[in-house]
Amino acid sequence: MHYARSEAKQAARKEFTGIWAATTTPFAPDGRLDRDAIASDMDHLTGSLHVGGVFCTGVMGEYWALTDEERKQSVETVVEAATGKCPVLAHTGHHSARQTIELTHHAEQAGADYAVVITPYYPPASAEGLRAWFHEVLSAVDIGMWLFDTSFSGVTMPMELIDELADAENVCGIKVGHDHARYLETLDRVGDRIMVCEANEGLWLENMRNNAQTVFMSSAVPYLYQTASWQPMREYTELALRGEYERAAEVAATLEPLRALNSKWLHGQWLRDRTLPIPFIKAWSDLLGMSGGQPRVPLLGLTAEQQSELVADLTTVGLLS
Protein backbone atom coordinates (compact mmCIF):
# COMPACT_ATOMS: atom_id res chain seq x y z
CA MET A 1 0.00 0.00 0.00
CA HIS A 2 1.66 3.17 -1.23
CA TYR A 3 -0.63 5.73 0.42
CA ALA A 4 -1.84 6.58 3.91
CA ARG A 5 -5.34 5.59 4.99
CA SER A 6 -6.42 9.21 4.76
CA GLU A 7 -5.15 9.38 1.15
CA ALA A 8 -7.13 6.38 -0.18
CA LYS A 9 -9.81 8.40 -1.98
CA GLN A 10 -7.27 10.64 -3.69
CA ALA A 11 -5.01 7.72 -4.64
CA ALA A 12 -7.89 5.80 -6.19
CA ARG A 13 -8.96 8.68 -8.43
CA LYS A 14 -5.45 8.76 -9.87
CA GLU A 15 -5.06 5.01 -10.37
CA PHE A 16 -8.46 3.76 -11.45
CA THR A 17 -8.47 4.67 -15.14
CA GLY A 18 -8.95 2.73 -18.33
CA ILE A 19 -9.96 -0.93 -18.47
CA TRP A 20 -9.66 -3.26 -15.49
CA ALA A 21 -10.29 -6.98 -15.88
CA ALA A 22 -11.95 -9.36 -13.42
CA THR A 23 -9.95 -12.59 -13.49
CA THR A 24 -11.09 -16.19 -13.29
CA THR A 25 -9.39 -18.74 -11.06
CA PRO A 26 -7.79 -21.65 -12.95
CA PHE A 27 -7.67 -25.15 -11.51
CA ALA A 28 -5.34 -27.99 -12.45
CA PRO A 29 -6.79 -31.24 -13.87
CA ASP A 30 -6.75 -32.72 -10.35
CA GLY A 31 -8.83 -29.80 -9.08
CA ARG A 32 -6.13 -27.94 -7.18
CA LEU A 33 -5.43 -24.23 -7.54
CA ASP A 34 -3.13 -23.70 -10.55
CA ARG A 35 -0.79 -20.86 -9.60
CA ASP A 36 1.27 -21.24 -12.78
CA ALA A 37 -1.88 -20.71 -14.86
CA ILE A 38 -2.77 -17.63 -12.79
CA ALA A 39 0.64 -16.16 -13.59
CA SER A 40 0.29 -17.05 -17.27
CA ASP A 41 -3.13 -15.37 -17.46
CA MET A 42 -1.66 -12.28 -15.82
CA ASP A 43 1.09 -12.17 -18.44
CA HIS A 44 -1.57 -12.21 -21.16
CA LEU A 45 -3.66 -9.50 -19.48
CA THR A 46 -0.80 -7.14 -18.76
CA GLY A 47 1.45 -7.96 -21.70
CA SER A 48 -0.87 -8.66 -24.64
CA LEU A 49 -4.01 -6.78 -23.63
CA HIS A 50 -2.42 -3.95 -21.61
CA VAL A 51 -5.17 -3.81 -18.98
CA GLY A 52 -5.12 -0.91 -16.53
CA GLY A 53 -5.58 -3.18 -13.52
CA VAL A 54 -7.04 -6.46 -12.30
CA PHE A 55 -9.82 -7.46 -9.90
CA CYS A 56 -8.99 -10.91 -8.51
CA THR A 57 -10.72 -13.57 -6.35
CA GLY A 58 -14.14 -12.06 -6.97
CA VAL A 59 -17.30 -13.41 -8.56
CA MET A 60 -15.45 -14.27 -11.79
CA GLY A 61 -12.84 -15.94 -9.58
CA GLU A 62 -15.33 -18.33 -7.89
CA TYR A 63 -14.36 -17.00 -4.47
CA TRP A 64 -17.11 -19.03 -2.78
CA ALA A 65 -15.46 -22.26 -3.99
CA LEU A 66 -11.97 -21.35 -2.68
CA THR A 67 -10.60 -22.06 0.76
CA ASP A 68 -9.23 -19.07 2.63
CA GLU A 69 -5.73 -20.38 1.99
CA GLU A 70 -6.43 -20.63 -1.75
CA ARG A 71 -7.76 -17.10 -1.78
CA LYS A 72 -4.57 -15.91 -0.12
CA GLN A 73 -2.37 -17.89 -2.53
CA SER A 74 -4.27 -16.53 -5.51
CA VAL A 75 -3.85 -12.92 -4.36
CA GLU A 76 -0.15 -13.50 -3.71
CA THR A 77 0.34 -14.94 -7.20
CA VAL A 78 -1.60 -12.14 -8.91
CA VAL A 79 0.32 -9.44 -7.01
CA GLU A 80 3.67 -11.03 -7.84
CA ALA A 81 2.76 -11.21 -11.54
CA ALA A 82 1.34 -7.67 -11.59
CA THR A 83 4.19 -5.89 -9.80
CA GLY A 84 5.50 -3.10 -11.98
CA LYS A 85 2.78 -3.74 -14.58
CA CYS A 86 -0.60 -2.81 -13.13
CA PRO A 87 -2.38 -2.30 -9.79
CA VAL A 88 -4.37 -5.07 -8.09
CA LEU A 89 -7.80 -4.90 -6.48
CA ALA A 90 -8.30 -8.01 -4.32
CA HIS A 91 -11.76 -9.20 -3.40
CA THR A 92 -11.70 -10.08 0.30
CA GLY A 93 -15.41 -10.30 1.08
CA HIS A 94 -16.77 -13.10 3.26
CA HIS A 95 -20.00 -13.58 5.19
CA SER A 96 -17.93 -13.41 8.37
CA ALA A 97 -16.74 -9.90 9.20
CA ARG A 98 -13.74 -11.36 11.02
CA GLN A 99 -12.76 -13.49 8.04
CA THR A 100 -13.17 -10.46 5.79
CA ILE A 101 -10.82 -8.50 8.03
CA GLU A 102 -8.28 -11.34 8.03
CA LEU A 103 -8.38 -11.68 4.24
CA THR A 104 -8.12 -7.91 3.82
CA HIS A 105 -5.11 -7.67 6.13
CA HIS A 106 -3.49 -10.47 4.14
CA ALA A 107 -4.17 -8.73 0.81
CA GLU A 108 -2.57 -5.56 2.11
CA GLN A 109 0.46 -7.45 3.42
CA ALA A 110 0.76 -9.36 0.13
CA GLY A 111 1.00 -6.08 -1.77
CA ALA A 112 -2.49 -5.60 -3.21
CA ASP A 113 -3.18 -1.95 -3.91
CA TYR A 114 -6.84 -1.94 -2.89
CA ALA A 115 -9.48 -4.35 -1.58
CA VAL A 116 -13.15 -4.78 -2.48
CA VAL A 117 -15.94 -6.50 -0.53
CA ILE A 118 -19.24 -7.86 -1.78
CA THR A 119 -22.30 -7.13 0.34
CA PRO A 120 -22.78 -10.08 2.73
CA TYR A 121 -25.87 -11.99 1.65
CA TYR A 122 -26.23 -14.73 4.26
CA PRO A 123 -27.85 -14.70 6.67
CA PRO A 124 -30.41 -12.13 5.49
CA ALA A 125 -29.70 -8.98 7.48
CA SER A 126 -31.45 -5.74 8.31
CA ALA A 127 -30.08 -2.41 7.16
CA GLU A 128 -28.70 -1.90 10.65
CA GLY A 129 -27.08 -5.33 10.55
CA LEU A 130 -25.36 -4.52 7.26
CA ARG A 131 -24.30 -1.17 8.68
CA ALA A 132 -22.69 -2.88 11.71
CA TRP A 133 -20.92 -5.40 9.43
CA PHE A 134 -19.40 -2.72 7.21
CA HIS A 135 -18.32 -0.51 10.08
CA GLU A 136 -16.65 -3.44 11.85
CA VAL A 137 -14.69 -4.26 8.69
CA LEU A 138 -13.81 -0.72 7.64
CA SER A 139 -12.65 0.35 11.07
CA ALA A 140 -10.22 -2.58 11.26
CA VAL A 141 -8.32 -2.06 7.97
CA ASP A 142 -6.25 0.73 6.42
CA ILE A 143 -6.15 -0.26 2.75
CA GLY A 144 -8.40 1.64 0.32
CA MET A 145 -11.73 -0.19 0.11
CA TRP A 146 -14.29 -0.55 -2.65
CA LEU A 147 -17.90 -1.53 -2.03
CA PHE A 148 -19.41 -4.15 -4.39
CA ASP A 149 -23.17 -3.74 -4.72
CA THR A 150 -24.13 -6.46 -7.19
CA SER A 151 -27.21 -8.35 -8.31
CA PHE A 152 -25.12 -11.54 -8.16
CA SER A 153 -25.44 -11.39 -4.37
CA GLY A 154 -29.22 -11.06 -4.44
CA VAL A 155 -28.92 -8.10 -2.07
CA THR A 156 -29.16 -4.40 -2.86
CA MET A 157 -27.33 -2.14 -0.42
CA PRO A 158 -29.61 0.52 1.09
CA MET A 159 -28.80 3.85 -0.54
CA GLU A 160 -28.70 5.48 2.88
CA LEU A 161 -25.94 3.05 3.88
CA ILE A 162 -23.94 3.73 0.71
CA ASP A 163 -24.28 7.44 1.45
CA GLU A 164 -22.98 6.94 4.98
CA LEU A 165 -20.10 4.65 3.99
CA ALA A 166 -18.96 7.08 1.29
CA ASP A 167 -17.79 9.33 4.11
CA ALA A 168 -15.57 6.62 5.61
CA GLU A 169 -11.94 7.68 5.33
CA ASN A 170 -10.72 4.62 3.42
CA VAL A 171 -13.77 3.97 1.21
CA CYS A 172 -12.76 5.13 -2.25
CA GLY A 173 -15.28 3.61 -4.65
CA ILE A 174 -18.28 1.43 -5.37
CA LYS A 175 -18.86 -1.01 -8.20
CA VAL A 176 -22.56 -1.00 -9.04
CA GLY A 177 -23.69 -4.32 -10.47
CA HIS A 178 -27.39 -3.55 -10.79
CA ASP A 179 -29.22 -1.80 -13.62
CA HIS A 180 -28.25 1.54 -15.15
CA ALA A 181 -30.87 3.46 -13.19
CA ARG A 182 -29.30 2.23 -9.95
CA TYR A 183 -25.87 3.31 -11.19
CA LEU A 184 -27.16 6.80 -11.97
CA GLU A 185 -28.88 7.04 -8.60
CA THR A 186 -25.69 6.01 -6.82
CA LEU A 187 -23.59 8.41 -8.88
CA ASP A 188 -25.92 11.28 -8.04
CA ARG A 189 -25.87 10.42 -4.34
CA VAL A 190 -22.16 9.79 -3.67
CA GLY A 191 -20.21 10.60 -6.84
CA ASP A 192 -18.86 13.77 -5.26
CA ARG A 193 -17.05 11.71 -2.61
CA ILE A 194 -16.15 8.32 -4.08
CA MET A 195 -15.75 6.76 -7.53
CA VAL A 196 -18.90 5.11 -8.90
CA CYS A 197 -18.41 2.49 -11.61
CA GLU A 198 -20.68 0.39 -13.79
CA ALA A 199 -19.07 -2.56 -15.57
CA ASN A 200 -21.45 -2.65 -18.53
CA GLU A 201 -19.48 -2.51 -21.77
CA GLY A 202 -22.57 -1.55 -23.74
CA LEU A 203 -22.86 1.63 -21.64
CA TRP A 204 -19.15 2.26 -21.11
CA LEU A 205 -18.79 4.88 -23.82
CA GLU A 206 -21.93 6.66 -22.63
CA ASN A 207 -20.67 6.63 -19.06
CA MET A 208 -17.33 8.12 -20.08
CA ARG A 209 -19.00 10.81 -22.19
CA ASN A 210 -21.97 11.72 -19.99
CA ASN A 211 -21.04 10.65 -16.48
CA ALA A 212 -17.27 11.28 -16.28
CA GLN A 213 -16.58 7.62 -15.50
CA THR A 214 -12.87 7.00 -15.99
CA VAL A 215 -12.53 3.29 -15.25
CA PHE A 216 -14.26 0.17 -16.52
CA MET A 217 -14.05 -1.83 -13.32
CA SER A 218 -14.30 -4.81 -13.78
CA SER A 219 -15.57 -7.76 -15.83
CA ALA A 220 -14.28 -10.54 -18.05
CA VAL A 221 -15.19 -8.59 -21.20
CA PRO A 222 -11.70 -7.10 -21.74
CA TYR A 223 -10.27 -10.56 -22.44
CA LEU A 224 -13.38 -12.02 -24.09
CA TYR A 225 -13.88 -9.24 -26.65
CA GLN A 226 -10.22 -8.71 -27.51
CA THR A 227 -7.10 -10.51 -28.67
CA ALA A 228 -3.44 -9.58 -28.86
CA SER A 229 -3.95 -8.34 -32.42
CA TRP A 230 -7.46 -6.83 -32.15
CA GLN A 231 -8.29 -4.51 -29.24
CA PRO A 232 -11.29 -2.35 -30.11
CA MET A 233 -12.34 -1.85 -26.50
CA ARG A 234 -8.94 -0.52 -25.56
CA GLU A 235 -8.91 1.66 -28.69
CA TYR A 236 -12.28 3.31 -28.13
CA THR A 237 -11.59 3.72 -24.41
CA GLU A 238 -8.40 5.66 -25.11
CA LEU A 239 -10.18 7.78 -27.71
CA ALA A 240 -13.04 8.61 -25.35
CA LEU A 241 -10.78 9.44 -22.43
CA ARG A 242 -9.10 11.95 -24.76
CA GLY A 243 -12.50 13.42 -25.61
CA GLU A 244 -12.64 12.00 -29.17
CA TYR A 245 -16.16 10.64 -28.76
CA GLU A 246 -17.19 10.44 -32.43
CA ARG A 247 -14.21 8.31 -33.37
CA ALA A 248 -14.71 6.26 -30.21
CA ALA A 249 -18.33 5.58 -31.20
CA GLU A 250 -17.24 4.30 -34.61
CA VAL A 251 -14.89 1.79 -33.02
CA ALA A 252 -17.35 0.80 -30.28
CA ALA A 253 -19.98 -0.01 -32.91
CA THR A 254 -17.79 -2.84 -34.24
CA LEU A 255 -18.48 -4.76 -31.02
CA GLU A 256 -22.21 -5.21 -31.63
CA PRO A 257 -21.87 -8.87 -32.75
CA LEU A 258 -19.95 -9.66 -29.58
CA ARG A 259 -22.55 -7.91 -27.43
CA ALA A 260 -25.15 -10.21 -28.96
CA LEU A 261 -23.06 -13.24 -27.96
CA ASN A 262 -22.70 -11.79 -24.45
CA SER A 263 -26.49 -11.69 -24.24
CA LYS A 264 -26.68 -15.28 -25.43
CA TRP A 265 -23.90 -16.89 -23.42
CA LEU A 266 -22.87 -14.62 -20.54
CA HIS A 267 -24.71 -11.88 -18.66
CA GLY A 268 -27.89 -12.54 -20.58
CA GLN A 269 -28.07 -15.99 -18.98
CA TRP A 270 -27.93 -14.39 -15.55
CA LEU A 271 -30.69 -11.93 -16.40
CA ARG A 272 -32.93 -14.58 -17.95
CA ASP A 273 -32.27 -17.69 -15.91
CA ARG A 274 -30.11 -16.66 -12.94
CA THR A 275 -27.45 -18.97 -14.38
CA LEU A 276 -24.00 -17.83 -13.28
CA PRO A 277 -21.96 -17.71 -16.52
CA ILE A 278 -18.53 -18.56 -15.07
CA PRO A 279 -18.27 -21.89 -16.99
CA PHE A 280 -18.97 -20.07 -20.26
CA ILE A 281 -16.49 -17.30 -19.42
CA LYS A 282 -13.82 -19.92 -18.76
CA ALA A 283 -14.61 -21.81 -21.98
CA TRP A 284 -14.64 -18.60 -24.06
CA SER A 285 -11.38 -17.30 -22.58
CA ASP A 286 -9.74 -20.71 -23.06
CA LEU A 287 -10.49 -20.50 -26.78
CA LEU A 288 -8.71 -17.12 -26.86
CA GLY A 289 -5.54 -18.38 -25.18
CA MET A 290 -6.14 -18.03 -21.46
CA SER A 291 -6.20 -20.87 -18.94
CA GLY A 292 -9.95 -21.46 -18.99
CA GLY A 293 -10.56 -24.90 -17.55
CA GLN A 294 -13.38 -26.31 -15.50
CA PRO A 295 -15.26 -24.53 -12.72
CA ARG A 296 -15.71 -26.06 -9.30
CA VAL A 297 -19.00 -27.62 -8.32
CA PRO A 298 -21.80 -26.75 -7.95
CA LEU A 299 -21.03 -25.04 -11.27
CA LEU A 300 -20.61 -27.45 -14.18
CA GLY A 301 -18.60 -27.25 -17.36
CA LEU A 302 -20.11 -26.97 -20.82
CA THR A 303 -21.63 -29.94 -22.58
CA ALA A 304 -20.04 -31.05 -25.84
CA GLU A 305 -22.95 -29.49 -27.72
CA GLN A 306 -22.54 -26.15 -25.92
CA GLN A 307 -18.80 -26.15 -26.55
CA SER A 308 -19.29 -26.77 -30.27
CA GLU A 309 -21.93 -24.06 -30.51
CA LEU A 310 -19.72 -21.56 -28.69
CA VAL A 311 -16.80 -22.31 -31.04
CA ALA A 312 -19.08 -21.80 -34.03
CA ASP A 313 -20.39 -18.50 -32.66
CA LEU A 314 -16.91 -17.12 -31.94
CA THR A 315 -15.76 -18.20 -35.39
CA THR A 316 -18.72 -16.44 -37.02
CA VAL A 317 -17.88 -13.10 -35.37
CA GLY A 318 -14.20 -13.44 -36.29
CA LEU A 319 -12.63 -14.04 -32.88
CA LEU A 320 -11.57 -17.52 -33.98
CA SER A 321 -10.25 -18.43 -37.40
Protein described:
The protein is of the alpha/beta class. It has one domain: TIM Barrel (Alpha-Beta Barrel), CATH 3.20.20. It is 49% helix and 12% strand. It has an eight-stranded parallel beta sheet with strand order 7-6-5-4-3-2-1-8. α6 (159-165) links the parallel β5 and β6. α2 (35-48) runs parallel beside α3 (68-82) and α10 runs antiparallel to α11. The termini are far apart. The mean pLDDT is 96.
Sequence stretches where pLDDT stays below 50 over 5 or more residues: none
What is the arithmetic mean of pLDDT? 96
Corresponding CATH architecture: Alpha-Beta Barrel
Q: Estimate percent helicity.
A: 40-55%
Portion in strands: 5-15%
Annotation, overall tally of beta strands: 8
H/E element string? HEHEHEHEHEHEHEHEHHHHHHH
| Major beta sheet, strand line-up | 7-6-5-4-3-2-1-8
Q: Termini separation (Å)? A: 43 Å
User: Structurally, how many domains make up the residues?
Assistant: 1
CATH superfamily: Aldolase class I
Number of helices: 15
The helix-and-strand class reads alpha/beta
Strands, helices and their partners?
Elements (H helix, E strand, L loop, with lengths): L7 H8 L2 E5 L12 H14 L4 E4 L11 H15 L5 E4 L5 H14 L3 E5 L8 H14 L4 E6 L8 H7 L5 E7 L2 H11 L4 E3 L3 H11 L3 E5 L1 H4 L7 H10 L3 H8 L3 H10 L1 H7 L4 H10 L16 H13 L5
Parallel strand pairs: 1-2, 1-8, 2-3, 3-4, 4-5, 5-6, 6-7
Helix pairs in contact: 2-3, 3-4, 4-5, 8-10, 10-11
Task: Give the key terms.
single chain; globular; 321 residues; alpha/beta; 8-stranded parallel β-sheet
